[in-house]
Amino acid sequence: MIHANPADDTRRAGSQKPAPGPATEPAGPSWLEPVLLAVTASSLLAGGILWLLDHGDAADLCWALGTAFAVVPATGWVVAALRRGHAGVDLIAVLALGGTLAVGEYLAGALIGLMLATGRALEAAAQRRASHDLRALLAHTPRTARRRTGTEVRPVPVSEVAAGDLLVVGAGEVVPVDGQVAGPAAVLDESVLTGESAPVERKPGQTVRSGVVNAGGAFDLRATATEQDSTYAGIVRLARQAGAEAAPVVRLADRYAAWFLPLSVAVAGLAWLLSGSAVRAVAVLVVATPCPLLLAAPVAIVSGLSRASRLGVVVRDGGALERLGRARTLLLDKTGTLTGGRPRVVDVTAAPGWKPAEVLRLAATVDQYSPHVLAHAIVDAARERGLEPSMATDVSEEAGRGAYGVVDGRRTAVGRLEPTTVVPEWARAAENRAVLDGAAVAWLTVDGVPTGAVMLRDPLRHDAPRALRRLRTAGIDRIVMLTGDRPEPAREIAAVLGLDGVRAELTPADKVAAVRAERGRAVTVMVGDGVNDAPALAAADVGVAMGARGSTASSEAADIVLTTDRVDRLADATSIAVRSRRIAVQSALGGMLLSLVAMGAAAVGLLPPAVGALLQEGIDVAVILNALRALRVDQGARPALEPAAEALIHRFAAEHEDLQDVLQAVRDAAARLSEPGGDGQALESVREVNRLLTERLLPHESAEEHELYPALEPVLGGPEATATMSRAHAEIERLAGRVAAHLSLADAQGALEPEQLEDLRACLYGLHTVLRLHFTQEEENYFSLAP
């Protein structure tokens, strides 16, 4: 089979990224391939029937007509390639077709013509199948929106929607632009962007990205961006460029052609010279049409693009996928890439006489009116723990200081402490803890008196450790963090993830310099999400943008966009890239080797032209089928979860969120045991902890042991994979039992004895540490398996 339209080589020398440009247009009209296939197949069949009926001359005429019909488009494709400066192996096909006509081997010519037609038809079918998801992405683009003005709802072109417009999104409709749910809650199918089929619920005020489908009832959407600035438009711009440039491994065909073409002609000429038979020369040319070089490689790469798109990974072109498959260095931004990009409440400290839950609820009551990112985190944390904010009046906000309001008749503030505020001892301890933990502090004051501290951090993504391990397995041997953040939190995350290096407090220019330095050593991937990452993404061999919540600038500068908010999709894409490239090279070189063997056999007269044409057809079909293996799911890349196991993971992940107040209570009770003169309050705190452990935590751990772990054992390779986590369950139960034993002794004696305090305090602090580590391990190793 012959691929007659190799893509233009727009890549600059070395490993530079391609210059942007429109997708490559097809070589000819869309009807040419089916017409060519129909004519060549009909002529071959008709000639075969006539030959069986002993009408040899008529059969030769049919075969000659089919050959002549194929010569015309083949010559046109070669001329078009020569105009672009490509003297490729397609020239061999024209020589073979002309040679069969010249020596009267009309059957061989008809077979080559059919080979040519079926090759192009197979190529078109393979690319249609491989690019189905990208075409679906383009077809999914919304054209109109329904804008609400007062009580009137009127359809308008999406291009006319402006930020601030109130839109109505009906059931089954595509969200036209980025916006926020204005009411009621929306149930959305985000599979087009994320690859995840489970519907998600977005509450009023939450962000919705364009391109997702309304899977519930109609809801109002407040537009926050125009069509061109919305998420889906940026992704579509990338999808339109998919396939614009052939991958470097595909262009190897042109380099191979530099010696393969003269070699084929030389072998054919030598066979003719030594044997005196022009038929042998034609036979050599017939089997020297190396479809594997020109067709199998691009089919494998385009198939890889399709596989990636199904996982929510939009790749700009085949070249980006091929470079990703060769990458050895990975550079990562911290905020929004390795971390979630949004702060979360990690601890709540309450003043004596106050409870952490009440502190968090009051802080959320004031902050629910604030647009600040920390305020959103506090409100979300309160609601996750079942603490609904109440009403506040006279709410105001001072930039850089915090929010103020009246709650239950008392002046309540959340934010920084006033310079004149007297800081009590418990607050100094909380401040020190925040410094050690690298956390920000939002102070709660009531009537000017500090009553609590809410500590917030941007936590590490649960899927990050597993993703980096998989990336190292895929061939990445150097991973470095580049961040503009302070060195302390950056080094802490680097230590947890086992990174090879970390550079902090970098400007965008510093990041670009670091990328260029790494590129001098190996093919380098840069991953980021913010506007400040865009220059570094553009400078890397492969720029990867976290597009789910990242900036439009970073997405536009990137070669690859992860449309789902999971960094492990990069590991999926890398595995796909490595596998696709391996299959492409394997198909091309394997098929070419078979063609060379067949050329030798034809040169010594073992393969007449007709038989050689049939053999070449078989070689072509084999390598194309091998290339299409890149469409299949690599089962070793990501463990396949049963639906029941996936449901259990989501259930226990939600319970981890609900149990954060239990962990907080354990730590607070340990701290109260150290407060002088507070034995009675400390004992009550321990009693409350014991109740929480008995009623909530231990049943959770037991359910994990007997429901979740057995469900994961087939995926993870047996019970040994969960044995260490089971041992942690045993330690948690032992420490909880020890706390209960101390309470029993205190009840028998009427109070906690001095000799009990040290051991009880150690039990509580130890239990808190074990629980935090255990929760983190489960979230990183088990919960990250589920999409």
From TrEMBL:
Residues 1-27 are annotated as: Disordered. Residues 1-12 have a biased composition (Basic and acidic residues). The keyword Metal-binding applies. It is found in: Cell membrane. The chain crosses the membrane at residues 35-53, 60-80, 92-119, 256-275, 281-302, 588-607. It is a multi-pass membrane protein. Pfam families: E1-E2_ATPase, Hemerythrin, Hydrolase. Its main location: membrane. Gene3D superfamilies: Calcium-transporting ATPase, cytoplasmic domain N, Calcium-transporting ATPase, cytoplasmic transduction domain A, HAD superfamily/HAD-like, nmb1532 protein domain like. Residues 648-785 form the Hemerythrin-like domain. Keywords: ATP-binding, Cell membrane, Membrane, Metal-binding, Nucleotide-binding, Transmembrane, Transmembrane helix. Belongs to the cation transport ATPase (P-type) (TC 3.A.3) family. Type IB subfamily. PANTHER family: CADMIUM/ZINC-TRANSPORTING ATPASE HMA2-RELATED (PTHR48085), CADMIUM_ZINC-TRANSPORTING ATPASE HMA4-RELATED (PTHR48085:SF5). NCBIfam families: ATPase-IB2_Cd, ATPase-IB_hvy, ATPase_P-type. This is Heavy metal translocating P-type ATPase. The lineage of its organism: Bacteria, Bacillati, Actinomycetota, Actinomycetes, Kitasatosporales.
